[in-house]
Amino acid sequence: MKKSLILIIFIFCSFLIFSQSSDEIKIMCLGDSITDGANLDYIYAYRYYLWKKFLTLGIRVRFVGTRSGITGIEPPATDPDENLYPGWNASGNCYHEGRGGWTTFDVLYGNDYYHQLDINALPGPDNINDNRLETWLFELRKNDDLPDVVFIHLGTNDVQVLSIDISQTFNNLLFIIQKIKQYNPDIKIIISKIIPMKQRNVTDQSLMFPAELYPMFDFRTNYLNNFIANLNNPLENIITVDNFNGFDIYKDSLDGLHPNMCGAEKIAHKFYISLLKFFPYIAPADFDPDFYFEANQDLIYRKLNNLWPCDESQVVDHYIEHGIREGRQASPVFSVTQYFWLNEDLQQVFGLNTEQLTYHYTSFGIHEYRRSSFAFDPFYYLQKYPEIYLDPRYSGPSGAARHWAEVGLANSYEASPVFNPDYYLEHNSDVAAACGYNPDGTFEEKKSARIKALIHYNTFGVWEGREASENFNVYIYYDLNTDLHPFFDINKSIDRFKLIMHYLRYGRDEGRRAH
User: Residues 318-350: pLDDT tens digits?
Assistant: First the structure.
């Protein structure tokens, strides 16, 4: 108990040191009410959940803009998670450039000017020169607050105002990007496809607009989103993110237009994933593009047969749109199926909802040093290799996971009492042959074999009861612990899987013999 407490204190101190020494990323969120927020059954828009994700992962960011709070709720608003996530308002992280009801035209030229053209438009401040993108950027530059990254989700109101030619919206978005780049050509822009709309309010089933308008809204939305997708240009620091596909308009939208809490979390997660393309050091522990290919043979086939684009950003999109939902493994340290089995409290909350389990791990589980797979236990790893504490590159809540994914697995470090890469290869000759393992080979050859060994273990070995560590053998564990016999059948693959889980969750702490 004392050793664990010291470990926790050391990890926490390392996390603070790492956080204070890391570069701060300044983010501006630009958009309409989906960015601003809505005074509905939730308080904050996606930016709140994005901020929470950064906070839990120990990433230093600051949200910048000339506005704070949301329309109708000016700060200090009550933070629904104040005890867990203090400082949302106090630290200024609620600043943004979201304007409820605004179009792309409004953002460029000021809402009052547009109000003169359309009496139904929402009125803005009296002085339009103080209420447009040019002025916001000027103020931010004056205060040395120009963003490093701009998140844009804009165009929903353009779609709804049928008098607006969507082709003009295209031009407006190009001008908005051009205007941002004029202030700093190196600013990174992440622009999102707009989320879908639905006809009826989920609460009272009322129509947001006349029913006959929705086919036109759908057409205009798809037309706009196709244009936004083509803006993707990483060489110019412009990336598009797809918040349309995968957004369930019945489960993720509150009133037909705005996301509910689940929808806002989805948007935040996709924006975060897109950000790692610019700042790879904040990459989530649940995703590694090379490992994703290696662990999913169908993707390798598609790549080899030119059925899969080699652009890494599209690999990320596949993981977000399909891989998470399908429960695919995308990282050495995280298996969503094993995360489910190893954390009983999460089973009761999420069931086998792979999306929610993945979000939980990246937002909370990695921060809490939860076991994330049979092959990786962060506490076991840090106790076995305490020198990792002293490397500032791997401090903080995700340090152990990143170290094993980047360094440990390649060098056959042992990160779990039930799996050792080289032991697994040396005691399973068919696996060694299939993985191309040569103990006298080059480092890169052995690294490749060890990664393949881990994938084989998670895919087949745990079910087959293969020997993978000198500390644990599932058949010996079963034979030596006869009290488990009424509950497990060693001849069934599912029970061999459950016996490994039992040892990791209970048996090891109980001092049960396993080898």
Answer: 776 688 888 899 889 999 999 999 999 999 888
∠ at Cα 195 (191, 200), nearest 5°? 160
Q: What is the 3-state secondary structure (H, E, C) of 441-500?
A: CCHHHHHHHHHHHHHHHHHHHHHHCCCCECCECHHHHHHHCHHHCCCCCCCCHHHHHHHH
User: How far apart (Å, rounded) are the C-alpha atoms in residues 77 and 69?
Assistant: 7
Contact 251, 330 (CB under 8 A): no
Sign of CA dihedral 5, 10, 14, 20: positive
Rounded Cα–Cα distance for residues 356 and 350 (Å): 7
* pTM more than 0.85: no
Cβ neighbours around 7 below 10 Å, total: 17
CB atoms within 10 A of CB 128: 18
* Local structure of residue 387 (DSSP, 8 states): G
d(CA 54, CA 20): 14
Burial class (CB in 10 A: 0-12, 13-18, 19+), 37: buried
Strands (E), 143-272: 149-153, 188-192, 238-241
Q: CA triplet 335, 341, 347: central angle to 5 degrees?
A: 110
Q: Specify the DSSP class assigned to residue 321.
A: I
pLDDT digits (tens, 9 = 90+) for 232-281: 998 899 999 999 988 888 888 877 788 887 888 889 888 988 887 788 66
